[in-house]
Amino acid sequence: MHTRHREPQLLGNEGTLERMARILAARNIDPAAAALPDDPEPYSPLDALLAGMPPRYQAAVADHPTVLDWVGKVTEAAVAPSRGARRQVTTGPSLLMAGVVGAGKTHQAYGAIRALVQNGVGVRWRASTAADLYADLRPRPGVDSERELAAVSRCPLLIIDDLGAAKASEWVEEITYRLINRRYNYELPTLITTNLAIKDLRSYLGDRIASRLAQMTTRVEFEAVDRRRHSAAA
Fold first, then answer.
1. Which residues contact 68 (CB under 8 A, 6 or more apart)?
2. CA distance 160 to 216
3. Could you tell me which residues come within 8 angstroms of residue 61 by beta carbon, excluding any fewer than 6 positions away?
4. Rounded to whole angstroms, how far apart are CA atoms 138 and 97?
């Protein structure tokens, strides 16, 4: 039996290039756009962070002394997974920021994450209002809410915004306690903001949650200065 041998075709062969051009045209692909750039643009850790931040807080800067102290402690606790690798947030202290609406708590929280990245620390993080978090964790068809709770509980760094603003219920109190307690046990840094005064936390959140927060967080109460109005006036 005679076996036919086909000569290999080089990518630069004129017929091959024509066929590639026809395939790209059939798929409405611009050959120039499909080509890989010779020198891809650098994508810094700060760029990656800003891509995941809400536009309103992409320029946030932490300047409160207690928040900056928290950033320093989390930076010191960061660990490199291997020699020469970028240090990552693994464990660290938590911070609770209390104050009226518009005092700048959320701004400081996002600014703290930005400061960590600028300190050379890698951060796997998640941010959510308490109300949105409860919506994500509420049992419903097609969703493994327990798996979602475990994922949030073990996230290396978590921002919980507006704790205490959602309507209270036994389910909300139970889920909040389970989340806070897991992060307490694993010593995972958590940034929490609340519109409640610190003296009112226990009556709104319950004894178990207030007790855990007292043990795991440094607490700071912001003055009643509306940053939004101040920015508008400026």
1. 62, 115
2. 14
3. 111, 114, 115
4. 26
What sections of 104-144 are H helices per DSSP? 105-118, 130-137
Q: pLDDT tens, 18-77?
A: 666 676 666 666 655 555 444 444 557 777 777 778 899 999 999 999 999 999 999 999
Token duo for residue 110: 């996002």
Predicted confidence band of residue 10 (pLDDT cuts 50, 70, 90): very low
Q: Are 127 and 156 in contact (CB under 8 A)?
A: no
In angstroms, the CA 160 to CA 145 distance is: 18
Do residues 61 and 104 touch, judged by C-beta distance below 8 A? Answer: no
Here the tokens at position 117 are 């990245």
Q: Which of 121, 36, 39, 28 is nearest to 79 (CA)?
A: 121
25: left (phi > 0), else alpha (psi -120 to 50), else beta? alpha
Handedness of CA 20, 21, 25, 26 (dihedral sign): negative
Measure the N-to-C terminal CA separation of the chain; round to a whole number of Å: 88
> Can you read off the two tokens belonging to residue 217?
């967080």
Q: Give pLDDT tens digits for 120-159.
A: 999 899 999 999 999 999 998 988 999 999 999 999 999 9
Instruction: State the Cα angle at 182 between 177 and 188, rounded to 5°.
Output: 120
The enclosing H or E element of 172 equals helix 170-185
